[in-house]
Amino acid sequence: QVQLVESGGGLVQPGGSLRLSCAASGFTFSRYTMSWYRQAPGKERELVAVISSIGGSTNYADSVKGRFTISRDNAKNTVYLQMKSLKPEDTAVYYCKAVLGVASSVYWGQGTQVTVSS
What is the DSSP letter of 87? Predict the structure, then answer.
């Protein structure tokens, strides 16, 4: 059974930090490109960051460059999103996504809420 379980969300003040985790099971994690998306109320889901299967390549949305870092631990089947200098506009539900090749297999997590507010 394939599972992607996000954790680490919560309420944080502007300027604060959070680290999200996404634990994977039921598939060969090391073969999959992993990414984080987010969806704010009333907005479309958007790509935040992506990391290649062996972690050698990363890419970020312009809105989070320099503040967020994506990483993965293939031994633990987990992908992380370290978020710093958080802003109210970062408030959203954050989802992790696993993709094999050119979308021959795609899995989504259930999401974790991040709220940035004073």
Answer: -
